[in-house]
Every structure is written in structure tokens, then in C-alpha cells.
Amino acid sequence: MSRKSTGRPVGRPRKEVNEGVILALAKVGCTAAEIAAEVQVSQDTVERNFADTLKRGRDLARLSLRRMQWRAAQNGSNTMLVWLGKQLLGQKDSPLDINAKINHQLEELSDDELLSLLGTRGSDRGDAGTVEETGGAGKAH
Fold it and tell me: What pLDDT is attached to residue 12?
């Protein structure tokens, strides 16, 4: 036997959700769980019923972030220039290149300049322990 319909809706009443709120929250990077908590529905409801809105908001968030990064690079942020170069141009740091540059710069410095970098002065070291260069091994004075 089947029951006769009473004309009343079955289940919970539908909750009205402002799609604009979901879009705004997705645009600032909120997760589906965070959005669901804000609009007081389940995460599953947000993901199922507002998938297109979530995608659009997240796409706009990425676009906004990229725009800010680009602006920072244009304003001279070396960190952002390096990061964007790595991300967009495939540039990378090479430890060998960095070490070669450092070694070359150190070779150009005098003994006093090197000691100054190390925080000691030529007068602090005295003559003890100096090594005279010869054609072969060094000879201590």
C-alpha cells in the first residue's frame, strides 16, 4: 500500500545561500570547509551546489595574487623578480656558479681586506704564522 501525498514538502526546508558570499570568500582563498561554516551549510553542499562559483572565485584569487606579484616585481622587489624568473622562465640558482663568483671575489681581495672581513686586523695577527709563498710549499717565518 502506498501513502497518499499530503502536499507537504519532504525533508528539511531548503536553506537560502547567498552565492555572492561564496564567491567573495573563494576569492580570498577560503577553503570549502571555511565557506560552509560561514554560510552555515555542510561542506558537501558547498562543493556540490556551488562548484562553479568556487572555481571562479579561486581563479580570480590566483589572478589577483599574480597581479600583485607582478606589480611587486615591477616596483623593484628583487625577491619577486627572482621568484617569477624561476617560475615563469625556468631560471634556477646554480650552487657552482655562486661558489665560483664568491671565490673570484675573494681572490681579488688583499690579505688585509680578507682579515677585515673576518673581523681581525693585520696588527692583531702579528707576524707569527705567516707563510711566504715560494715556488713549492710555503715556509713559515
Answer: 77
Distance CA 77, CA 60 (A): 23
Give the residues of the chain that fall short of pLDDT 70: 1-5, 96-97, 120-141
Q: Are 92 and 59 in contact (CB under 8 A)?
A: no
Domain positions in the chain: 17-91, 93-125
Nearest to 125 by CA among 111, 138, 105: 111
| CB neighbour list of residue 72: distance below 8 Å, 6 or more residues apart | 80
17 closest CA partner among 43, 44, 46: 46
Alpha-carbon span 51 to 45, nearest angstrom: 9
Element (H, E) at 101: helix 95-107
Burial 109-126 (b: 16+ CB within 10 A, else e): eeeeeebeeeeeeeeeee
Q: Is 108 within 8 Å of 115 (Cβ atoms)?
A: no
